[in-house]
Amino acid sequence: MQPEPAAKTSNPRRRFFILGALFELLLIACYLLPESWLAVKIHNFTLVAHIPLLFLLESGFGETAPTAILILLVGFVVMSCLWGFLIFLVTKGIGSLLIRLNRNQKRFVWFGAGVVGLVCLAWAGISMLPQTPRPFESSLEIKSVVDADTAFALDLYQKLKDKPGNLFFSPYSISSALAMTCAGARGQTEMEMTNALHFSLPPEKLHPAFKALAARMDKIQRWNRIILKSANSLWCQRDYSLHTDFVRLIEENYFAAAKSVDFKMASIAAADEINRWVSGKTDGKIPKIVEAAQLGPATRLALCNAIYFKGKWQHQFKVSDTKPALFHISTNASVTVPIMSQKEHFKTAYSDDGSVELLELPYAGTDLSMIILLPRVDYFLPDVDQPGLPHLEKELTVENLQFWLKELDRTTSHETRVALPRFTTTQNYDLVPELKSLGMTSPFDESANFSGMDGTTNLFVSDVMHKAFVDVNESGTEAAAVTLVLVKTKGQVGSFIVDHPFIFLIRDNGSGSILFLGRIIDPTK
């Protein structure tokens, strides 16, 4: 009769150890799950929880098979004890809480826990479902707008390429903001803007096409668990009236929120309100687009477009595989940067002359992809004249880009070892000089005609400010861009190693729309 108490005290310990061991085995088994957002989160949690064990294995203690096996067994026992102890603490805490409740309260608690558990299981199951691209049938009008945006994007790139260092902007954001402005332009001003932006559609078809592209983005976001938001706003001087038709067009086709501010007497407050809107729409990645000094008594209108994208790679890079390596800025200069690497099935292609390699890195759902355009350069032959980034930029025409992308789309994915630098960059531009050089001159001077906005010819564009942010890491990409227009009164390879400067773009594979475009010369800046 005496051994019974000892048995009672030992059983709970054994039970919690077994529960801890089962939980440890469950974490190990999760590595067999198909690749998904939830699987990556579980993998990362498991990696962090087992850092001491991994440190022992990599520090030399596990160089031989017997010691490695011993460390793994000891680690399994230790982790089982740890998980078991945590389970014991949780169950004891729940037990002490339940003992204070009456029967009905306990039933309510268990019912709530069951509902939460079912919701979590359903959420986990949905996250494991394969993410498929959203079907999209492009109309002639949408294709015309996409082609125009692509041509404008490359024109603007050619104007910005002479700036030193990295380059990054959102052609879609800039085109959208200028399209809203163009809706109020008339005469020579309208003609210059449509020519520079390559718009060929009449207004009654142009603006609904932009509306359809915005609806496409919203559909991608809803179905494929990525964040892709585009927002527009119209900020008007409080005592200044705009044509009802103009405001209605902007609201209906660009979903722009019309807001009244006081540029004359409260420019600081107006700037703060615009910047708060921008920060909210870009998840804080672009906290400020305008300074109070840029606003004043002459400011009548500010049209703003913000686009924010955050997506996970379809095939995510493992953090543990990221290692420091050389990135060759030029033939005689290099920097050490964290290089992500993985071996998976990707699409790759070459240009006709073999001077450019292309790689497609799809995001979850495969509706969006990052396309890398890498000039083929051998930095082990510094004395040989080789085509590099300047040659690629010279060849970056609409015809060439469309041909390269078609070739890439036609290829089938194959196993490729990819090495890509991890990078973050923020770029800020005043685009007025570049837009003027593209032929858009009258909107910025005394001859401007924006009578479609207010019925007068007293308005002109004073500033076109654009700010863009991108962060590329192991899990995916986060990018944001904002364009602000201020209107005032007159007054196939086995490996793809990205270790030197390259051009990249993020596109909607369904419509072909280029959402972001840039180049990286130095990933550390």
Question: Can you summarize this structure?
Answer:
With 525 residues, this protein is α+β, with helices and mostly antiparallel strands.
Features:
alpha+beta; Antithrombin, Chain I, domain 2; 6-stranded mixed beta sheet; 15 helices; 15 strands
Description:
Helix 1 (3-29) crosses helix 4 (65-98) and helix 9 (203-224) runs parallel beside helix 10. The chain starts with a helix and ends in a 5-residue tail after the last strand. With 525 residues, the chain is an alpha+beta fold. It has 15 helices and 15 strands. Among the domains are: 3-98, no CATH class; 140-303 and 429-466, Antithrombin, subunit I, domain 2 (Antithrombin, Chain I, domain 2, 2-Layer Sandwich). The strands form 2 sheets. Strands 1, 5, 6, 7, 8, 9, 13, 14 and 15 form a 9-stranded mixed sheet that branches. Strands 3-2-4-12-11-10 form a 6-stranded mixed sheet.
What share of the residues lie within helices? Answer: 40-55%
Strand content: 25-35%
Cα distance spanning the termini: 76 Å
State the CATH architecture of the domain at 140-303 and 429-466: 2-Layer Sandwich
Low-confidence stretches: none
CATH topology of the domain at 140-303 and 429-466: Antithrombin, Chain I, domain 2
Mean pLDDT: 84
